[in-house]
Amino acid sequence: MFTLALRSLRFRVGAFAASFLSTLLGATVLMSFASMLDTAAGDHVDAASEETLGTMATVVGGWGLLLVVFAVSSTLTLAVRQRAQEMALLKSVGATPAQLRRMVVGEALVVSTSAALLAVAPAMLGGRGLLAVLKETGQVNEEIDYAFGATGLSMGLGITFAAAVLAAFLGARRATAMRARDALTDAQLANPPMGLARRIGAVLLLLVGASQGVVTMTVMNGEGSDAMQTAGTASITFALGLALLAPLLVRTVGAVLTAPLRWFAGTSGYLTAHNVRRRTQQLANALMPVILFTGISFGTLYMQAVENDATDAAGLTKSTEDKNIELLNFVVIGMIALFACIMLINTLVATTTFRTREFGQQRLVGATPGQVLGTVGLEGLVLACSGIGFGSLAGLVTLIPFTIARTDRVVPDVGPAMYGGIVAVALLVTLASCVLTARRSLRTPAMEVVSAA
Amino acid sequence: MFRQHEEQPARHPEALRLVSVRKVYGSGARAADAQQSTRAAQAENQVTALDGVSLSLPAGSFTAVMGPSGSGKSTLLQCAAGLDQPSSGVVVVDGAELVGGSETELTKFRRQRIGFVFQQFNLLPTLTVLQNVTLPLRLAGRRVDRQAAVRVLEEVGLGERLGYRPAELSGGQQQRVAIARALVTNPRVLFGDEPTGALDTRSARIVLDLLRRAVRDYGQTVVMVTHDPVAASYADSVLFLADGRLAGRLERPTAEAVAERMAHLGDEVLAAPAPGQSYGGSGGPWQPVNQGV
């Protein structure tokens, strides 16, 4: 099975590119920060510097583990699911589910090991850069020398490895449990109702997020930068709650937009309206990362901007701890945003590729390539705009309470440029992933596409 | 009703004409992908699917195309229907020559002239029966006459299933939806690529009866590829294809006669006219079949 795993890797480089890339990025960030522990063990390190370096390594390490598991499992699950036919074939020639699981885990091990090893060099550069930033802002002693040693290496490799294996087990379990026929035919159209656990979880997250917002406005009002603790998590929690509700949100958007799409966007609008209503599950999977990306980056970046303005207004200079928090905010948000983007691209590329046959059918009925791309683009636009809308809502759960607590205003005095940037990235990533993938799938003649399945 | 005669512009008496159509696969870009792109390897990779096929079918005829696997019958259909472009030769549908161009141009050509029914139905899973049938009109930017679409669906016996989704229908019902979808645009030629290939005997008979009725009652031109002698016997005439060349024809076929002819097709190939020459006995152009219909 391991030989088979190696062979399937050799011939399916594209399918594993997303897993590889997210692992590579995850391992790079992890090791850059983990090497702070090695650095802290060196000479000229005073107690305060040691604490700063330790915080950097552990906070980012924890978030990194979570994100790598999340990203790798989602990319790997999709890579495995796209091979449902191959899995069915292997089953039909006598492979047991256990053997298939071993194959998938084997693939994950090869991908994650090579990605983690490749990450060592960029991680050393990243760690050096991080230390330079810490020195420049006076957060650590100028005398400290950078070190990349056993701790950084083992922490980076260990976490990446553990995350990949965990993710592979999760992905393989789902893939091998799936019956081949279901995977190939109607499964893609099934809109299973949301489970009770998911509904309850979503409502709880929304309530917790909202109450963190309320606490920020009331209890934390006038407490200074401490308000960031509750305010920062508010948008993350609220965005996660909305992400869990994604199928419901897609249905709502579909119901609201059906009439305008049909009236104003012609045939493409007509097809888009149908797809939004019938492909709830796929769209929900893509909507989640857009909400998380928009909500968390919008909330946190603006919170930090308000905080900086408030500190300046009070005529204070930042303490080392303030600087630590700011840097950590940016790093964690950057990681979340990056992984959300990878997940988004991966989900969209996979689901759009999966629809190659459907595009072929549309073309055979008389759709020009332009009409197919128009429909895909319109769907992407609906997806991106809904995600941006709901994500912005989540961001406001952080931003408004924090502004009230910190400045006695309701709307912060920060320009819209950053928000514009966030919106532009979300739109660009979504549209480019959908349209470019669809365009590639249009290169194959329609007859070939349709008869291949 | 299969169509509304009052909206019809005059039809060309010749629904479909092919002149020396050749189709060669495996040249150029694809062979370049191979590791050895030497000229010899390239020649070896080339497959001549159609080797100079010429034929002419009058409007209102029902023709079956038969031949063993790999004889080029699906390629013939795809080239004639504008789904694929011949390597050389001329395809004329309803008096208009199919000129090679972008996919968009080919699509627009097909929209106005050609209906296609596939073995695997190819209905869009997200749309209902009625929405599937009206889709070609929407895509072509034509007025969607809901009543006309419903009438066509009633004609194929699915007037009660307008709101169903393809997955909720049997194979035979799905193929009837596909036929309604192909007929709703009023095509000059309706092509069928093994339209009964995925159906049980009973459903296949219903589908074939529908096609024959479209020809008899409404003057529709139908060209159908099949490997089933019984299906071919529903046509007015059968064209036999072997190794990419026309290898005979049969008027008013019976299933037995077709099966008999298929069994001896190999012998005929050996005695067939040289490549590039049109089939028709004395070397003249292929005579229109079924002039009387």
From TrEMBL, chain A:
Keywords: Cell membrane, Membrane, Transmembrane, Transmembrane helix. Its main location: membrane. Residues 64-169, 331-445 form the ABC3 transporter permease C-terminal domain. It is a multi-pass membrane protein. GO terms for cellular component: plasma membrane. It is found in: Cell membrane. GO terms for molecular function: transmembrane transporter activity. The chain crosses the membrane at residues 58-80, 108-126, 146-171, 200-220, 240-265, 286-305, 325-349, 381-405, 417-438. The keyword Cell membrane applies. It comes from the Bacteria. InterPro entries: ABC3_permease_C (IPR003838), Macrolide_Exporter_MacB (IPR050250). Belongs to the ABC-4 integral membrane protein family. This is ABC3 transporter permease C-terminal domain-containing protein. It comes from Streptomyces oceani.
Automatic annotation (TrEMBL), chain B:
It comes from Streptomyces oceani. The keyword Nucleotide-binding applies. Pfam families: ABC_tran. This is ABC transporter. It comes from the Bacteria. Residues 274-293 are annotated as: Disordered. Keywords: ATP-binding, Nucleotide-binding, Transport. GO terms for molecular function: ATP binding; ATP hydrolysis activity; transmembrane transporter activity. The keyword ATP-binding applies. Residues 16-268 form the ABC transporter domain. GO terms for cellular component: membrane protein complex; plasma membrane.
